[in-house]
Amino acid sequence: xxxxxxxxxxxxxxxxxxxxxxxxxxxxxxxxxxxxxxxxxxxxxxxxxxxxxxxxxxxxxxxxxxxxxxxxxxxxxxxxxxxxxxxxxxxxxxxxxxxxxxxxxxxxxxxxxxxxxxxxxxxxxxxxxxxxxxxxxxxxxxxxxxxxxxxxxxxxxxxxxxxxxxxxxxxxxxxxxxxxxxxxxxxxxxxxxxxxxxxxx
Length: 201
Hints:
The chain has a domain at 1-11 and 48-154. It is built from six helices and no strands. The protein has helices spanning 2-16, 49-60, 62-65, 69-105, 111-142, 145-178. Helix 2 (49-60) packs antiparallel against helix 4 (69-105). It is flat and about 60 Å long. The termini are far apart.
């Protein structure tokens, strides 16, 4: 029990040191990145952010997937509700984080109180992850089997394009490295030798 408590306090100290322990997906709309409790750096990108990306993917490819106006409206409603939940929870996590910061700085604060604050932050994050999973499942439930296949095909197409783009970037970097700067500080001309040290005409 004490080991778990010390682990939690160590995580909090990492937070105070400026480590990005909690963040959301980096997509458009309201700001979706923040600091807080959690063991994964960067976003919630893979955990909380996945459902937001999925909902946007459906809306971006609604024609290809064959979504009806009713389906689009319901998916937009899910997206809005998830955004509101995320914004509210993010604010609560930031408040709890600020309180935890002050508690850790005060040596008079009981370890039990610090443990309770850590658990509060963890519970908030669990709630947000559950909301994200629920939003994705609710969106999937709106799709017909045929639409699910089309969505999968669009996703695979997008991932293929992304992979090709990355390969192109890597080849460009390799080409740039192959065309490295010539000796002499990047100037292609010959460096003056001893024979050029005489008086100029």
